[in-house]
Design goal:
The complex is a heterodimer of chains A (about 650) and B (about 80). Chain A has about 650 residues and is of the alpha+beta class. Among the domains of chain A are: about 280-465, Aldehyde Ferredoxin Oxidoreductase Protein, subunit A, domain 2; about 470-645, Orthogonal Bundle (Aldehyde Ferredoxin Oxidoreductase Protein, subunit A, domain 3). Chain A is about 40% helix and about 15% strand. Chain A has 29 helices and 17 strands. In chain A, the strands form 4 sheets. A 6-stranded mixed β-sheet of chain A has the order 2-1-6-3-4-5, with helices on both faces. In chain A, strands 8-7-12-9-10-11 form a 6-stranded mixed β-sheet. In chain A, strands 13-14-15 form a 3-stranded antiparallel β-sheet. In chain A, a hairpin with a 2-residue loop joins strand 16 and strand 17 (about 465). The longest helix of chain A is centred in the middle third of the chain and has 21 residues, at about 255-275. The termini of chain A are close together. The relative contact order of chain A is 0.12. Chain B has a single domain (about 1-70), classed as Beta-grasp domain (Ubiquitin-like (UB roll)). Chain B has a 5-stranded mixed β-sheet, with no helix packed on it. In chain B, about 35% of the residues are buried. The chains are: A alpha+beta (about 650), B mainly beta (about 80).
């Protein structure tokens, strides 16, 4: 599949980089007044248009989206792996010009579908060497669709800092030297000032510029495509930002059917929430602490414990009471889980968004910090500097344990680093983003830090990506999900916490492992579908799938068909999800990953949980992996069989 | 017998006094369903139920000193 790209070309001179492209003949052919005319006549839901940006040559071009690719891969995450496999050598240097960034929206992104707000950034990760596909909401993704584009493929490397300005079908690269070094918020302010007040931005902060291996791409100021260093890849390309303005509407194949489905599922949401106010709207995702702490899987002190004595000081209800200003929805979202917060006074005074549950775990319990103001302030810093809060917190937690055990000296850190030191969170985030002092070591992430100190087993990672906020010893399915996720230790590639902890759609015993392989596989495929469609899992898992463990994507299929006219069956949609998972697996294998990388640290598989409701348990990963591979149609070595690839059209 | 009840989020609205954790007196042989009946939690209100940190349901029998945790199903974290 890999075809060599046009990399390594002489870099353009500054003049050429400055060139405005919408006057070029190439772009002339693509200039159309609205989405409806610029897309392929037969395409709805999808715009039918790919924007290719060659930063080495300073060249921008349009390509048509292949309708068969659209149908087979649905969009967003599906398009990401399709183009990455086609165009990027899995063995490439992630921070070299040969790596590419695929930013892609789904067919429901930018429509009125509930939570049709998402896009996915796919690239080869500098943190892990694996694929990463980071997902984000806000308003930027919908705006991208309204500008008439499904996909942006960013390739090469600019000689000098630039940003991409997409004003409908007029697209240009502009110098960004004056923005280099600025925070994400400063950059957003400046870019909207020099383009359009209503433009939407996706930017990197100082962390991305310095190629911190877990730098994020921040869109709409505080929403993050956070995981596995997508921001570092953008920084390596000297691309500071993508700015987009679109005034078109996404064309619908069958507006009547689409509206009927949309109304039906929004009404179902309203009916259920009449007696059940959505916890995520009232308290944000940080309410999830109740679920993890109660089950004894709230990671504490670098996963040494599964319960945190200070949990009530940092969970969602406390956040609501102390610092919540208002709930903030993404585009077209009825839930509104986003948190606008303010710390009115004290050493951590500030205002911003968050913290989310994952941040409360990573910068809170995992570091033994029960000071909500400190971890919220550290969250603000991460957002403004462009850092993934999960990997930042996890790296600090790892450093704290290395320090506790005497494997990391105070002289190496430059300060003491005891558990619970809230001030250190803020300080280390700032140092990491700018690679100052010990921050330069933290910037490489927990895996490299632990290895450097001679104790790689103390990095709580899968495939080098830091775990989310769930200890797999008391939640067996999560262990299998971490180990087999294509991007490493993420909960968002088939989140078993829904059925193991949170009661959605039904409750399953989190301690059993025998029943988990088929559930994890099914949910991984489902999450691929949700990500590909451009939806958010928070709404989708409760309202757009059948409410049993097989989670047939009936509602998603209805919405997809109304938007695209593709005439999908739910089974075909599920199959597309499975295709995406297998395609991602193929990229991993080609990048050199093997069965042994489907692993968890020995703490999780061999050290029994010391206390709490999950006391005495370890994660039974090996027992789950064998049946998991088998039911996936993979060999005992974890490679998709020829028959499976043929069935999915991946041969 | 007495059990300890820990309600969260909207389930706090059914706590007899204040909105925090409380002790509840139940007849011997009571189940989780008796907690719901005593607190008058409507059947339309959804709850995830844990007894001593383990997954439970309405039929789960209770013993003196049990810790009963109630929280709404959540759409994720």
């Amino acid at each position: 599949m890999f075809k060599s790209g046009n990399h390594g070309d002489p870099v353009p001179n500054r003049e050429r980089t400055r060139k405005r492209f919408y006057g070029s003949p190439e772009m002339e052919t693509a200039r159309k007044p609205d989405i409806g005319e610029s897309r392929s006549e037969s395409m709805h839901g999808w715009c039918g248009k790919i924007l290719r940006v060659d930063l080495s040559r300073g060249k921008i071009s349009n390509e048509a989206l292949d309708p068969q690719v659209a149908r087979d891969y649905i969009g967003a995450r599906g398009f990401g792996i399709y183009y990455l496999r086609r165009e990027v050598d899995p063995a490439c240097d992630p921070l070299g010009p040969e790596n590419k960034i695929v930013m892609a929206a789904g067919p429901l992104t930018g429509t009125a579908a509930p939570t049709g707000a998402r896009y996915v950034v796919t690239t080869k990760s500098p943190l892990t060497g694996a694929i990463t596909c980071s997902n984000s909401g806000g308003n930027f993704p919908a705006e991208l669709k309204k500008s008439g584009h499904d996909v942006i493929i960013i390739e090469g490397r600019s000689a000098t800092p630039v940003y991409l300005w997409i004003d409908g079908d007029r697209v240009e690269l502009r110098p960004a030297g004056h923005l280099w070094g600025k925070t994400t918020h400063e950059t957003d302010d400046a870019l909207r000032g020099e383009t359009h007040a209503k433009a939407k931005t996706a930017v990197i902060g100082p962390a991305g510029e310095k190629q911190v291996l877990f730098a994020a791409i921040m869109n709409d100021r505080d929403r993050a495509a956070g995981r596995a260093g997508v921001g570092a890849v953008m920084g390596s390309k000297n691309l500071k930002a993508v700015v987009v303005r679109g005034e078109g509407e996404v064309s619908l194949a069958d507006p009547v059917a689409f509206k009927a489905a949309n109304t039906k599922y929004r009404e179902a949401f309203k009916a259920k929430t009449q007696d059940n106010p959505p916890p995520l709207r009232v308290h944000g995702t940080a309410i999830t602490v109740v679920g993890t702490q109660s089950h004894g899987v709230f990671p504490t002190r670098n996963f040494q414990q599964g319960t945190f004595e200070g949990w009530e000081s940092i969970y969602g209800e406390t956040l609501t009471r102390k610092y919540l200003v208002r709930a903030k929805p993404c585009f077209s979202c009825p839930i509104a889980c986003g948190r606008v917060t303010r710390i009115p006074d004290g050493p951590y005074q500030g205002e911003g968004e968050g913290p989310e549950y994952e941040t409360v775990y990573a910068l809170g319990s995992d570091c033994g910090v029960d000071d909500l103001a400190a971890l919220t302030k550290a969250n603000y810093e991460c957002n403004e500097l462009g850092l993934d809060t999960i990997s930042m917190g996890s790296a600090i937690a790892c450093a704290m344990e290395l320090y506790e055990k005497g494997y990391l000296k105070e002289s190496e850190i430059g300060m003491p680093l005891p558990w619970g030191d809230g001030a250190a969170l803020v300080k280390l985030a700032r140092m990491t983003a700018r690679r100052e002092g010990f921050g330069n070591i933290l910037a490489e992430g927990s895996r490299r830090l632990a290895a450097r100190c001679g104790h790689p087993e103390l990095a709580m990672v899968a495939k080098g990506l830091d775990f989310a906020g769930y200890d797999p010893r008391g939640e067996q399915g999560m262990g299998l999900a971490y180990a087999t996720s294509p991007i490493g230790g993420s909960h968002m590639r088939g989140d078993p916490a829904y059925f193991e902890l949170l009661g959605v759609p039904v409750a399953v015993d989190p301690h059993t492992w025998e029943d988990k392989p088929p559930l994890v596989a099914k949910w991984q495929d489902l999450f691929s579908v949700i990500d590909a469609a451009g939806l958010c899992v928070f709404f989708s898992v409760r309202y757009l799938v059948e409410q049993n463990l097989m989670v047939k994507p009936v509602g998603i299929t209805e919405l997809l068909n109304g938007a695209t006219g593709a005439g999908y069956s739910p089974e075909e949609v599920e199959r597309a999800g499975e295709r995406i998972v297998n395609a991602e697996r193929l990229f991993l294998l080609a990048a050199g990953f093997t069965r042994k990388d489907d692993s968890l640290p020995p703490r999780i598989t061999r050290e029994p949980m010391p206390a709490g409701p999950a006391k005495g348990l370890v994660c039974r990963l090996e027992e789950m992996l064998v049946p998991y591979y088998k039911l996936r149609g993979w060999t005992p070595e974890g490679e998709p069989s020829e028959a499976k690839l043929k069935e999915l059209g991946l041969l | 017998m007495k059990v300890h009840v820990h309600p969260f989020a909207n389930l706090r609205d059914y706590a007899p006094t204040g909105k925090g954790s409380f002790e509840l007196s139940l007849a011997d042989g009571a189940t989780v369903a008796d907690v719901f009946a005593t607190l008058r939690i409507p059947s339309t209100v959804e709850a995830v139920i844990l007894v001593n940190g383990r997954r439970a349901d309405q039929t789960t029998p209770l013993a003196a000193g049990d810790e009963v945790t109630l929280f709404p199903p959540m759409e994720g974290g």
